[in-house]
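Hey all, quick one. A colleague (J.T.) asked me to put the iron/sulfur cluster job into the tracker so the inputs and the structure tokens live in one place instead of scattered across chat threads. No bug as far as I know, just bookkeeping. Sequence used:
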Amino acid sequence: MPKLKVALYWAASCGGCEIATLAIGERILQLAEAADIVFWPVAIDAKYKDVEEMEDGSIDACLFNGAVRNSENEHMARLLRQKSKILIAYGSCAYEGCIPGLANFFNARAILECAFLETASTDNGGKTLPQPKFNVPEGELDLPVLYDTVKTLAQVVDVDYSVPGCPPEESATWMALEALISGKLPPRGAVIAPPATAVCNDCPRIKNEKKVRAFHRTYEIVPDPDKCLLEQGLLCCGVGTRGGCGALCPRAGMPCTGCYGPVEGVRDQGSHLLSAWASIIDSNDPDEIKNILDGIVDPAGSAYRYSLPASMINRARVKP
Ligand code: SF4
Ligand code: SF4
């Protein structure tokens, strides 16, 4: 049987998903037996022109990680879609927008000005901002154009499967690779991850009725090691987040931040979380409720940390 041709690509991401692929450990030998990697810029020397010269559909599967936030990311998303039979949004950035997607609370101009003009450590007397095109004696240099709105991979091209996680746990990575190798793929459009109940179902912490009279940031309290963190006022996203990670964070004493995305059937993880948190406030008094809510320092960033581009609100309205 001919070997599969697999590509991996890194768009707007931190690189964690690239490393996460190696978490499959010795099963990488099974992958090497079944597949050749034809494009993986972080690990092998292949150029964009090598992909452009491939036949359309000649890559059996591409694991695309990272969101689409500039013209280069979009070019590669379209090119790899054209060249790949199966395109997988691998990891939260490609699947939902993730941390790069928090840029959707601003626009490109504001981000460039913050990074190149306003930060305390910046010394930019000429107030120079990156330009997409610049002429030098040797010719024209160009940079990718930074978009105002970060997009998920599926908002740019058709996606066949998604693998959640920031980064995906090895269980989800191997589920996807094993399905590819065996040819036993789930129905197109599926999110490939272990069973899709909420993180709370995998969390061993003791759960009681959730009633909260104050929210805290993680550094403000030392939580009880056994009890549900949300019941102690820590903003845990486990109630509205797809399981499959084994509840890694609450097991280690940290609230779940929501990286596995919405539970099956939920369209908008952020509004689901906001609704869940609001429902456990133990007061009927509007002033007291307001005080309790003031304890949530960054409601939008907490509820939409991984999913703003994929959400119904998608981005903030800002002046052009
Ligand atoms: S700590 Fe978080 S994940 Fe665990 S039961 Fe409470 S809300 Fe759910
Ligand atoms: S507990 Fe939440 S934040 Fe932590 S790995 Fe699981 S889904 Fe991601």
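Adding what we noticed when we looked at it: Residues 3 and 24 are 19 Å apart (CA to CA). Strands lie at 4-10, 35-39, 59-65, 68-70, 84-90, 133-136, 139-142, 146-151, 161-163.
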